From TrEMBL:
<dbReference type="InterPro" id="IPR035595">
    <property type="entry name" value="UDP_glycos_trans_CS"/>
</dbReference>
<keyword id="KW-0328">Glycosyltransferase</keyword>
<comment type="similarity">
    <text>Belongs to the UDP-glycosyltransferase family.</text>
</comment>
<keyword id="KW-0808">Transferase</keyword>
<protein>
    <recommendedName>
        <fullName>Glycosyltransferase</fullName>
        <ecNumber>2.4.1.-</ecNumber>
    </recommendedName>
</protein>
<dbReference type="InterPro" id="IPR002213">
    <property type="entry name" value="UDP_glucos_trans"/>
</dbReference>
<feature type="coiled-coil region">
    <location>
        <begin position="401"/>
        <end position="452"/>
    </location>
</feature>
<keyword id="KW-0175">Coiled coil</keyword>
<dbReference type="Pfam" id="PF00201">
    <property type="entry name" value="UDPGT"/>
</dbReference>
<dbReference type="GO" id="GO:0035251">
    <property type="term" value="F:UDP-glucosyltransferase activity"/>
</dbReference>
Length: 463
């Protein structure tokens, strides 16, 4: 193989929380192995969006595979969970499986062009079917988990044991982790329907089973931060596991408008609460009302990214009836709140010195982006492994207090509880100290001092 160029192919799932860390991983690999050819593969629309977010002079190749959303019951031009309502996620997953022949052709094309097969395929755990192609071409297969180790370990365990007969009972225990008992409201929508024969069960059990046979697993986390989660994950998977995080955007993908920037600059240090439920989840209209009332009652400054509530098309225009009467005018008048519609420059907001806490759904990228800036979290987990992320942050790290859980009809939200969680996190010195300490731990994992001394734990794994 000497003298031949080494090629690494990365293939993230079509969600913002997956594509961003994959791109950052691609850039990190390029930094340490500048002679390698690095190709990131996705569907046409996602690749087009990525083209505009690549740093100038980036050497990452972007390749798209043909994809037709509308032939899978998806709205046309929707290739990202960001633009798809939750009930259609299953269609996107099924549609993503039809990419297999095109991905195989891509690997065959690279093999022909380079004269040797790629060195490695790094695939999302939702694309673990790429293992078949890797085996066929004799390529090393790596899975990259963009979520944390603890949440991933628990999800692997959950989908192994079906049906989840006791998911409806008051307490639900996880097969491999009998010590963890969760109330049913801490389970995501797809989990409570999992009877073994439903579409999610069939799909995820197969994908997870393939994933356990991957040659190596990379995780967007840090050894010192998730020691227990990593050992739980080792019980679930066969290959060696390498924490490679925190892979985070350091610069903003969207620039902050002057209005928002001026408003943030005018607030006292660590006083602003940032509220966002990530790229693909939203809360119910009734919950939005309670949240608005709680925010107003605290009298604390806040930025709230509002996306349409559950049941509305994700792209629908903002409607003032989602909020209490006169809320927006009052917030504008008193300058207490800054409302952003659809999408905010999250990294810029979290890195601003005026930001004091983040009310978040606890998606893993949001968690890392917050903690790397020493910003503590008010948890409101909504789906997937977010319930476990929040649990881990509360019980193991001590940087989070939960305000509410879930967005199912049965998930009641009390204004007073949301208010209480906000007050605790904004005022508690110990939580703030722990968030700052966590920032130090996370940042040192990808640091390298001069002359290669003191190499961070994630970099050691990658090298
Ligand atoms: C999904 C899964 O649901 C979650 O369980 C998993 O941990 C990650 O992927 P998502 O909503 O994409 O959740 O959450 P998150 O991981 O937090 O990623 C959202 C990304 O979009 C972040 O990088 C965040 O900075 C960005 N974002 C989100 C913005 O820049 N602006 C916004 O307004 C909203």
């Amino acid at each position: 193989m000497e003298g031949k160029k080494q090629h690494v192919v990365l293939f993230p799932f079509m969600g913002q929380g997956h594509i961003t860390p994959f791109l950052l991983l691609a850039e990190l690999i390029h930094e340490y192995y500048p002679d390698y050819t690095i190709t990131l593969v996705n569907t046409p629309l996602n690749i087009r969006n990525l083209q505009s977010s690549l740093p100038p002079g980036s050497k990452i190749n972007l390749k798209s595979l043909p994809f037709d959303a509308s032939s899978h019951g998806l709205p046309p031009d929707t290739e990202n969970t960001k633009a798809i309502p939750f009930h259609l996620f299953i269609n996107l997953f099924r549609a993503s499986e039809t990419l297999e022949p095109a991905f195989e052709r891509l690997i065959a094309g690279i093999t022909e062009e380079d004269g040797i097969p790629p060195l490695c395929i790094i695939a999302d755990n939702f694309f673990s079917w790429t293992l078949h192609i890797a085996r066929k071409f004799g390529v090393f297969h790596s899975t990259f988990l963009t979520s944390g180790a603890y949440g991933s370990a628990l999800l692997f365990s959950l989908w192994k044991y079906l049906p989840h007969r006791n998911a409806y009972s008051d307490e639900f225990s996880l097969p491999d982790f009998p010590e963890i008992r969760l109330h049913h409201t801490q389970l995501s929508n797809i989990l409570v329907v999992a009877d073994g024969g439903d579409a999610w069960s069939v799909l995820l059990r197969r994908l997870n089973e393939l994933c356990t046979r991957s040659d190596a697993v990379l995780v967007n986390t840090v050894k010192e931060f998730e020691a227990r989660g990593l050992s739980m994950l080792r019980e679930q998977l066969q290959g060696p596991i390498f924490p490679v995080g925190p892979l985070l955007c350091t610069s903003a993908s969207h620039s902050m408008g002057m209005d928002l920037s001026d408003w943030l600059d005018s607030q006292p240090s660590a006083s602003v609460l940032y509220v966002s439920f990530g790229s693909q989840n939203t809360i119910r209209a009734s919950q939005m009302l309670k949240l608005a009332m709680a925010l107003e009652a605290t009298s604390r400054p806040f930025i709230w990214v509002i996306r349409p509530p559950v049941g509305f098309d994700v792209r629908v225009q903002f409607k003032s009836e989602w909020l209490p009467e006169g809320f927006e005018d009052r917030m504008r008048g008193t300058k207490q709140g800054f409302i952003v519609h659809q999408w905010a420059p999250q990294v810029e907001i979290l890195s601003h010195p005026s930001t004091g806490a983040f009310l978040s759904h606890c998606g893993w990228n949001s968690v890392l982006e917050s903690l790397v800036h020493g910003v503590p979290i008010i948890g409101w987990p909504l789906s997937a492994e977010q319930f476990y992320n929040s649990k881990f942050l509360m019980e193991e790290v001590g940087v989070c207090v939960e305000a509410a859980r879930g967005n199912r009809e049965s998930s009641e939200v009390k204004k007073e509880e949301v208010e209480r969680a906000i007050e605790i996190v904004m005022d508690n010195e110990e939580i703030r100290r722990k968030a700052k300490e966590t920032a130090r731990v996370l940042k040192s994992a990808l640091k390298e001092e001069e002359n290669n001394t003191n190499v961070g734990s994630s970099l050691r794994g990658l090298k």
